[in-house]
């Protein structure tokens, strides 16, 4: 790809999605955009970029979507889900006992593996959640990927990535050569198309936010802005989960790491409780 | 270093599995059928068994049931790795004492993830 074409696409992606594409990622750009070019009947990426320069809005949306879609796993990295199950969930049950409800937000729901992993955890704990109203909201910038998430249909490869066999047998049914998630789990997640650079207030208030492996694609000011906005949507004792390679340190003072819990952050704002009262801290 | 016995009648599958497991720092041994695998376990009980289902002489499920009767036979973590991909087979395997189940075709990522899930190593 010509350097000026790369710069043009990179700038467009930055504006539309916040995605920062450095020169060393040009292979990624080419491998993701070739299928888009083929679908549109272009000879190559030169023609595709030429068409983008003509302000083809539909094509720009397709390109953004192709670049912001990521492969996902059930229970990706395991640890954050164990932490949620063993620390945050018991704390939620204790502290929300009066209103019997809480809300979880998956800020990069992708093809649904993360929200469904959380739905499985809640389902497994259903004896303790009798009469509770629990909400899982999954957002993503990509309409196409959310369609897949809503369908809850996974290939044999996908259903084996991260999902323990007992849970697969319990919550998935074979449907021809694919695996379909239990409709009861599917009904626990509500999907919404949402760009993290947009106003987040329409999503409402949450007790827990999962925003894993998204910030890595943003530059520093964008990361700060997104984190600051997210902190406003989170309960004072709420928790934020980031990906293994991400941090708030030096980026936002609205969150602080919870000691001993990698990737888990407590709210840091006036009126927020001291670390000991965060949902992310294990009861002594 | 943990040990894994690879049981599969296909030489190609054994080779692919050996390559992945060696990269994961396992020592490996191989068997072509359930009977060979059982003899191998009697001589030297492994930490893990990667187990095919359909094999000549003795199949995977019969091997697993026999293994769990052996002294020390409850030690190995057994991961089935087979083209049988219906719920009935998976249930039968779990009831016979399998710890995990991989549906072929598989790749290095799936094998790694499954081994990590059953605690055979820490995922990076």
Automatic annotation (TrEMBL), chain A:
<dbReference type="InterPro" id="IPR000780">
    <property type="entry name" value="CheR_MeTrfase"/>
</dbReference>
<dbReference type="Pfam" id="PF01739">
    <property type="entry name" value="CheR"/>
</dbReference>
<dbReference type="GO" id="GO:0032259">
    <property type="term" value="P:methylation"/>
</dbReference>
<dbReference type="InterPro" id="IPR022642">
    <property type="entry name" value="CheR_C"/>
</dbReference>
<feature type="domain" description="CheR-type methyltransferase">
    <location>
        <begin position="1"/>
        <end position="256"/>
    </location>
</feature>
<dbReference type="InterPro" id="IPR022641">
    <property type="entry name" value="CheR_N"/>
</dbReference>
<keyword id="KW-0808">Transferase</keyword>
<dbReference type="Pfam" id="PF03705">
    <property type="entry name" value="CheR_N"/>
</dbReference>
<keyword id="KW-0489">Methyltransferase</keyword>
<dbReference type="GO" id="GO:0008983">
    <property type="term" value="F:protein-glutamate O-methyltransferase activity"/>
</dbReference>
<dbReference type="InterPro" id="IPR029063">
    <property type="entry name" value="SAM-dependent_MTases_sf"/>
</dbReference>
<dbReference type="InterPro" id="IPR036804">
    <property type="entry name" value="CheR_N_sf"/>
</dbReference>
<dbReference type="InterPro" id="IPR050903">
    <property type="entry name" value="Bact_Chemotaxis_MeTrfase"/>
</dbReference>
<protein>
    <recommendedName>
        <fullName>protein-glutamate O-methyltransferase</fullName>
        <ecNumber>2.1.1.80</ecNumber>
    </recommendedName>
</protein>
<keyword id="KW-0949">S-adenosyl-L-methionine</keyword>
From TrEMBL, chain B:
<protein>
    <submittedName>
        <fullName>Two-component system, chemotaxis family, response regulator CheY</fullName>
    </submittedName>
</protein>
<dbReference type="InterPro" id="IPR011006">
    <property type="entry name" value="CheY-like_superfamily"/>
</dbReference>
<feature type="modified residue" description="4-aspartylphosphate">
    <location>
        <position position="52"/>
    </location>
</feature>
<keyword id="KW-0597">Phosphoprotein</keyword>
<dbReference type="InterPro" id="IPR001789">
    <property type="entry name" value="Sig_transdc_resp-reg_receiver"/>
</dbReference>
<dbReference type="Pfam" id="PF00072">
    <property type="entry name" value="Response_reg"/>
</dbReference>
<dbReference type="GO" id="GO:0000160">
    <property type="term" value="P:phosphorelay signal transduction system"/>
</dbReference>
<feature type="domain" description="Response regulatory">
    <location>
        <begin position="3"/>
        <end position="119"/>
    </location>
</feature>
<dbReference type="InterPro" id="IPR052048">
    <property type="entry name" value="ST_Response_Regulator"/>
</dbReference>
């Amino acid at each position: 790809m010509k350097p000026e074409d790369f710069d043009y696409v990179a700038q467009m992606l930055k504006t539309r999605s916040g995605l920062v594409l450095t020169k060393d990622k040009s292979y990624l750009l080419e491998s993701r955009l070739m299928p888009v070019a083929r679908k549109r009947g272009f000879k190559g990426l030169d023609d595709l970029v030429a068409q983008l320069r003509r302000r083809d809005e539909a094509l720009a949306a397709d390109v953004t979507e192709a670049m912001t879609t990521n492969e996902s796993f059930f229970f990706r990295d395991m640890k954050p889900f164990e932490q949620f199950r063993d620390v945050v969930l018991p704390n939620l049950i204790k502290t929300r006992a009066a209103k019997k409800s809480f809300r979880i937000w998956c800020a990069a729901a992708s093809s649904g593996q993360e929200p469904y992993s959380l739905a499985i955890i809640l389902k497994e704990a259903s004896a303790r959640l009798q009469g509770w109203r629990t909400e899982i909201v999954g957002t993503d910038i990509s309409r196409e990927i959310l369609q897949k998430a809503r369908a809850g249909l996974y290939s044999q490869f996908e259903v084996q990535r991260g999902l323990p066999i007992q849970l697969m047998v319990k919550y998935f049914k074979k449907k021809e050569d694919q695996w379909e998630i239990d409709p009861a789990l599917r009904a626990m997640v509500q999907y919404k198309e949402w760009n993290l650079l947009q106003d987040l207030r329409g999503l409402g208030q949450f007790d827990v936010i999962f925003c894993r492996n998204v910030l890595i694609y943003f530059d520093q000011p964008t990361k700060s802005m997104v984190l600051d906005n997210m902190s406003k949507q989170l309960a004072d004792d709420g928790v934020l989960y980031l990906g293994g390679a991400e941090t708030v340190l030096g980026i936002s003072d609205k969150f602080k790491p919870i000691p001993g819990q990698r990737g888990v952050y407590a709210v840091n704002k006036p009126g927020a409780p001291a670390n000991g009262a965060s949902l992310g801290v294990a009861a002594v | 270093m943990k040990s894994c016995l690879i049981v599969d009648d296909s030489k190609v599958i054994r080779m692919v599995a050996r390559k992945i497991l060696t990269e994961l720092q396992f020592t490996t041994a191989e068997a072509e059928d359930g009977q060979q695998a059982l003899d191998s376990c009697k001589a030297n009980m492994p930490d893990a068994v990667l187990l095919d289902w359909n094999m000549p002489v003795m199949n995977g499920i019969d091997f697993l049931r026999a293994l769990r009767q052996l002294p020390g036979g409850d030690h190995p973590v057994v991961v089935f790795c087979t083209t049988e991909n219906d719920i009935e087979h998976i249930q039968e395997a779990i009831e016979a004492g399998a710890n995990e189940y991989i549906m072929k075709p598989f790749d290095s990522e799936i094998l790694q993830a499954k081994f990590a899930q059953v605690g055979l190593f820490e995922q990076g």
